[in-house]
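Re: [ENG-882] Designed sequences occasionally contain unexpected residues at chain ends

Forwarding the minimal case from QA. Structure tokens:
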């Protein structure tokens, strides 16, 4: 017995059966009673696909993230799923990795499942080669696409992000204002967010009249980011003769690696070296000394993303295409900002 059999048995449309299953108020009591009686008599158990028939909704949102073991992405998915559930939506998560072809394949898989929208978590989904973003635009022609910490200007695409550039600019300027001018920047992503952070660092140096030197800006492949890997990179810089009195990292994990290097090298934090990270995760308070970090308001971003999606579903014409939140610098023991 399936939804088609229930429709035939009761003499009502498949759409009406779906409305009864979903508790819609737009069905008369007489029809509702007839359909429910047929369901009970047949022992029919509705599945999610059947519930969506005739209602043009599966009450399911597709979520794509690169790596669920990444603390930032895992936390983001948690917040998003929690709020979707509060709004009576299920979620379907696909972890895509960073390969473009896999991302495209995963998007196709979600759309084939008839999801009501797709949420892309992390700025790595917006490519600098704009043609590579066509699969996102094509998806948005079918369902709303929400970007968490990324921007792509196209119809039916909505962005919620942190002002990463301003955050790193502020941190860097605070380092400089407190006499730290031999700065190193370590980053692990060339995504939209990653490049905004890098721009904040270089702009702060320019505005302070400090030369930008390539050997002081180090890219760490995101696939190989680890505490030990970051420690080795800083150690290698020192061995090459690069002098530094401040290190700013685009991720807290990298910064903890810096602290490991400092401890093994006998450096005093923050007297000899200022260190700051990004994301303000638990690790920033678990390390010793506790890490100054940028709180990019991840929970706020994720909850606003879901709220925006619900407004899109409600056909609210005032829904903003892009919402930008400000970050907050949480100072701890790895810096000593007397002047900010």
């Amino acid at each position: 017995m399936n939804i088609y059999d229930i429709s035939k048995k009761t003499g009502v449309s498949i759409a009406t059966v779906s409305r009864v299953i979903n508790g819609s108020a737009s069905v008369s009591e007489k029809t509702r009673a007839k359909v429910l009686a047929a369901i009970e008599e047949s022992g029919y158990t509705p599945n999610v696909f059947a519930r969506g028939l005739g209602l043009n909704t599966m009450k399911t949102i597709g979520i794509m993230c690169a790596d669920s073991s990444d603390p930032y992405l895992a936390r983001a998915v948690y917040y998003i799923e929690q709020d979707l559930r509060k709004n009576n939506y299920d979620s379907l998560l696909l972890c895509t990795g960073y390969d473009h072809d896999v991302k495209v394949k995963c998007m196709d898989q979600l759309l084939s499942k008839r999801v009501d929208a797709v949420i892309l978590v992390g700025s790595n989904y917006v490519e600098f080669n704009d043609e590579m973003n066509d699969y996102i635009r094509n998806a948005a022609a079918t369902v709303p696409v929400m970007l968490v910490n990324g921007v792509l200007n196209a119809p039916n695409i909505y962005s919620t992000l942190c002002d990463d550039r301003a955050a790193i600019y502020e941190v860097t300027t605070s380092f400089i204002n407190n006499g730290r001018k031999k700065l190193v920047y370590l980053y692990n992503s060339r995504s939209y967010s990653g490049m905004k952070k890098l721009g904040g660092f270089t702009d702060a140096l320019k505005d302070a009249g400090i030369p930008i030197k390539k050997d002081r800006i180090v890219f760490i492949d995101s696939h190989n980011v680890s505490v030990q890997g970051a420690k080795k990179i800083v150690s290698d810089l020192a061995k090459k003769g690069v002098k530094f009195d401040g290190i700013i990292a685009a991720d807290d994990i990298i910064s903890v690696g810096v602290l490991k290097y400092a401890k093994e090298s006998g450096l005093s934090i923050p007297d000899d070296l200022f260190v700051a990270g990004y994301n303000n995760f638990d690790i920033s308070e678990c390390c010793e000394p506790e890490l100054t970090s940028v709180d990019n308001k991840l929970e706020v971003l994720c909850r606003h993303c879901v709220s925006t999606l619900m407004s899109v579903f409600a056909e609210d014409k005032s829904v903003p295409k892009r919402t930008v939140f400000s970050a907050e610098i949480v100072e701890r023991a790895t810096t000593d900002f007397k002047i900010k």
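QA comment: On inspection the terminal residues look reasonable. The two ends are 69 Å apart (CA to CA). Proposing we downgrade this to a documentation issue.
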